[in-house]
Structures are given as C-alpha cells and as structure tokens.
Specification:
Helix content is 39%, strand content 20%. The protein has 279 residues and is an alpha/beta fold. The structure holds adenosine-5'-triphosphate and magnesium ion. Magnesium ion (MG) binds next to helix 1.
Length: 279
Amino acid sequence: MGVIIGDFNRKGGVGKTHSVINLAASLAMLKKKVLVIDGDSQVNATYFFLGNDEEFFDGADLNENVKTFADVIEGNADLMDSIVRLQYTTKRLLKKHFSKIECVIDLLPASKDMDLVDISDIYAVKKITDGLKDEYDYVFIDFPPSKNDYTLTYLVACDYIIIPAECGNDDSIMGYSDVLSSIEDIQINDEIDSNVDILGMFFTKFMSYKNDQKEAMEESMKVKEDMKLLDTHVRFDYKPTVDSKDKHEPLCICAAKSKAAVDYMALAKEIDKTIRGKK
Ligand SMILES: Nc1ncnc2c1ncn2[C@@H]1O[C@H](COP(=O)(O)OP(=O)(O)OP(=O)(O)O)[C@@H](O)[C@H]1O
Ligand SMILES: [Mg+2]
C-alpha cells in the first residue's frame, strides 16, 4: 500500500518543488513506483518535467488540450488518462559493468488557473489520492507556498508531510510551527477523516562551510526529537541545480555525482526506511 507525501512550508522558494522532483526521481531509481501531483498553480514541477516538449508547452504556456489535476478535481477528465509518464535512462556501474537503468516517473500536471476550481469539499483531493495507493509506492503532492482551502484539502489527503526549510535563521522554526499547528488542527478534529502526520523537516541549500549555518544545524540537532528533524540534509549546489532545470532532467539523471544528487538519494533512502518502519 502506497503513501501520499506532501511538501508543506508556507515560505516561498525554500526548495519544495526541487525536493519533490528529486526525491521522486531518486525513489524511482530505487525501483519504486512514483507519481508527482503538481498542486501548485505556478506549474513549476509541470514545467520542469514537460517544459521542453512541444506536445505540452508552447513557450511557458501549457497547451490547452493537456489534462490537468484541476480537470480531474472538477470531474472533467479521467485520472489515469491525465497522468503523463516520463522515462529517463542512464548508465550506472554495477558489479564492474555499466548497466542501463530506467527511471520512470508519472506526473499529474497543474494548470495556471487551478486556483479558480471550487474546493469547498475538504475530501476533494483525498477522494482522488486514496485510489492511487494501490497503483503507486509514493505519491508526492507539490504544495504551493500558501495556506488556504487548497492546502487544507492536500493536508487531509496526505499521510506524511515533509518540511523543506532553509537552515540558518528563525524562518525554519517558524515554518515548522506553522505546519505543526495546521496538522494538529486536523488531528484534533474528530469530524475530519485524515491520517496526516509530520514525517520530518530537512534543510535544503545547506552550506556547511558557513559558520552561521553550521551553528544553526547544531542547535537544530539539539531539539531534534521535539522537532522531528530528518538526519539527511541537502547541500547547496548551484551549477547542477541550474543544469538540471535547463535540461529538464532530475539530478540523479543529469548530475548523479553532484552533492545535491547524492544528498537527495540519501534522503530518499532515509524516508523510505522511516516509512517502511512505521508500517
Ligand atoms: N540544493 C540546492 N542548491 C542550489 N539551489 C537550489 C537547491 N535547491 C533548490 N535550489 C534553487 O532554489 C530555488 C527555489 O527552489 P524551488 O522552486 O524548489 O522552491 P519552492 O519552495 O518550491 O518555491 P515556491 O515556494 O515558489 O513553490 C530554485 O531556483 C532552485 O533551483
Ligand atoms: Mg514550488
């Protein structure tokens, strides 16, 4: 039975989308069946995966015939028909030989006008994602940088929330408290049927060579138990990240040896192990 994971942090630009893309790709490399649902009208994940394909994008605009998550919520498109399959191949040295490895990721695209869709039913997303647990090991929902009726329906649908955050200032603590209070509101409400819980926070763009970040990390480790902090963090890695966006390929495909790719693979393994331990 698969799990639904959301990346929630109201603060913008902390690396949510980048984390979902690279965790999904790393898990796909580990032969897990993964789906990314782009839940953000900025369509960043959708553009990352499909932006170089004329069948889907005309410049920065998604073609009108593409079926999206919003169409599925509105009942205007069939879920499975709306999912796009992405296949990447790469070579890895396995037992002294180079072997071809396939990385398969499914994507349910977002649309720029999805915020206009009526989302008054808090189970609107859960009704869709519950049925996906038989199909996938991991379903990721890429959250927008906001807190509104949309994110509430995503939270209700999720089993676990990961909190990507930047290290070195109070924003990460505030981000954690903000997510925690949203989740507790759901957990204490007997009328809401949801399993949502925090899996953990992790740092993105971590610069261990900067003293303030090192100190902030040490401080965070001291309160680790209270805060559910994951062990693995992702180092700042500018060039591979830019190349990955330019090539529309996850880091494990276009820059597998980069610091960020190595960290995302380690984080994917930690998440997989933690979740399997909970089952
Ligand atoms: N490890 C990293 N090293 C360097 N740059 C990174 C790293 N992770 C993310 N970035 C960059 O940080 C920026 C923000 O990342 P991303 O779009 O994933 O954030 P986000 O939290 O999803 O943003 P939003 O809140 O707008 O949805 C992007 O330009 C991305 O390339
Ligand atoms: Mg994003």
